[in-house]
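The methods section describes the discrete structure representation at length, but only in general terms. An entry of this sort, consisting of the sequence and the corresponding backbone structure tokens, reads as follows.
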Amino acid sequence: MSEKAEAGDEQDLGALMARVLPRLAALEEPILREAGLSMWEYTIVTELASADVVSQVELSRRTRRDPTRLGKNLDDLTARKLVARARASDQRQRTVRLTSSGHTLYMKVKKRVRAVEDDFLHSTLSEREAASFRHLLARLAALDIGR
């Protein structure tokens, strides 16, 4: 059996994702720019939208964002009144939550992002395949959350 056949004919996931992610980013970037958000800020806001309050440490872990860089992003989002920070019961930690303005902006942006993602997915995938892809990707993304 040849080495190629043993390895399979499929490309590695990392190589495939490296081709897909820039395409998605190019579709989403104009929407985020218009909303005044960077991709990292949108990632942070998206994570905050899924929880009432989260510690900065947990937010750093969930977004895989370096705590120092996350702090800068949170400073900017706080200055724009999109997030609010407070001291946790453990005074060494701070908690973060979306403000109502942040939630409103998130919902508007999410709707537009979802539309371009759906167009992208449906350009090649059926409705069922696209839904399955989203579901499977969400499961893979959740693997790191519990660790």
User: Anything to note?
Assistant: The beta strands are 54-55, 83-87, 94-98.
